[in-house]
Every structure is written in structure tokens, then in C-alpha cells.
Write a structure and sequence with these properties.
313 residues; alpha/beta; Rossmann fold; two-stranded parallel sheet; 10 strands
Amino acid sequence: MTGWTAEDMPSLTDRTVVVTGANSGLGLEGSEAFARKGATVVMACRSVERGESAAAEIRGAVPDATLDVRECDLGDLANVEAFADGLHEDYDAVDVLCNNAGVMAIPRSETADGFETQFGVNHLGHFALTGHLLDLLRAADGESRIVTQSSGAHEMGEIDFDDLQHERSYGKWDAYGQSKLANLLFAYELQRRLGNHGWDNVISVTCHPGYADTDLQFKGPREMGSTLRTAFMGIANAVFAQSAEQGALPMLYAATADDVIGGEYVGPGGLFDMRGAPEFQQSNEASRDEATAERLWAVSTDLTGVEYDFESA
């Protein structure tokens, strides 16, 4: 993988790639890279207006880009289902699903369905979306991939089944760490279930961007109304972060590289795993606890009402 860049991606002509959070940051960079390689990119965005603006930006760099901007609010399960229904109407298959969108370290709030926002958007929204699109992924010609974006912050996470929504006690970083750990537990459990049901043409892979300069770091301070914290994040990003373009590379590698197998975890291999070219890495022991993963899957099914039907699909 040494020196691997987006230019090393294979041709994606006739491939359909769905990217959540495609209007900014890693999602925007990833969408442009997929489009540059010939993919039809479904840009799943909470705001269609911002999505169309991002698509115009991509077309400025890639004039022949094939982009489909659609509303997908991961904080509203009915909206997620409507998005999936729309894809079923207009597409026969999905080749890559990038579960990329997320929120980080924000003051406590709730989704439309009453979930703590970080857990609801980062984990439950993607759990529901993936379940709704399972049959389209199965229908792909050749191997399809589900790429779930996690974070090094999973290492400070703990799945608190007694207070998943952090109603009794809320720490913004604790909640973020829990959601990122949940991403990994979900992705690994999904790979086990795909294998157990003989779905050899669909694999589940995870990744993390290291420390990338995106708008994600600013959302929390802005919602808190903290000018000082916002300024501090700007300085930290300028000094320590790699670009969003570089931060998107692990997702692009996980989605397209020919040596990727189900259950892999891809991240930047440079200083403290915060920057550099993508490489295969190991997430922490908690993320690979199968008992916790099975319990989280059951709870997620109950909370979202989304059943993964491996048999009929």
C-alpha cells in the first residue's frame, strides 16, 4: 500500500456507489474520487441544497461525473427508508455502500426518533440504511462492499446497554466514542452474518480517516456557541491534520482495492495512525467482542425495526 493514492483505484465504470454525508469533508472527497473513476455516485445528503452545491463543485473538477443527489437524513428512520425505496425504484444494484456520514462531540440532542443524536446518526441510521439496501448489494454483478467509517476514538468508547441514549449521564466524547465503537461492532458482526449465510459476493469492511481537516471538528464548538473552541479547532487542524483528500484514502482503499477481504480495518499508516497512506490495521479488543456485537445487533434491530433478511434477499 506504500504511496497508494486515489489514482491507483481501478475503473468504476458501470458501478454504482452510494456515499452518505457526500456534500462535505470525506464524503465530498470520496464522491469526487469515485466519479473520476467512472462510477455513478449517489450522493446521500441530509440537505439536498448542500448536496447539489457539492455536486456542482465536483462537476467543476470532473465534467463528465455521473452524480445523483438524494435526500437521506440518518437522524430520521422514515427518511432513511424513503431514500432506500427511491433507490429500489431507480437502480437494479448497488456495488459499494459507504456508511460515511457522522456527527462528532456535539451537545446532547435527539433524532426524530428520540435517539441520542451521535448514536442515532452514526450507528442506528447506518444500521437501518444497510439493512434496507441489502438486496441491492446482493444483486451487484461481482463483489459488492459495505464500507463503514469509524474512528480512532472507538478506543475510548464503551457500549453502555443500560444507558445507550445517555439519558442519565451525557459526555459528548463518551457518546461519540460509543457510536464509533458501535460502527465497528456492527461492521464485524455484519461480515460474520454474511459469511454464515453464504453471501460470498458481499463483504463488510471498516476504515478510519486518522486526523483529517474537515468541518466535523467544528460542529460541536459551533453548537455550543464557543468562539474560542472554534478558533482552537481551526489552529489544531492547520497544524496537525492531514487534508480531507488524504483522510478519504482509507475509505477509497477499503471500497476498491483488490486485496481487501471482509472484516478488514483500514487506516492511515503514518504518525500515530493519524496521517499517511492507507494500511490494514487492528481495532481494539472491545470492537471484536462477539457477544457484545450480537447484543448490539439485537438492540439495533429492536430500536430501528429493520430486520436483515439474509434468506429471502
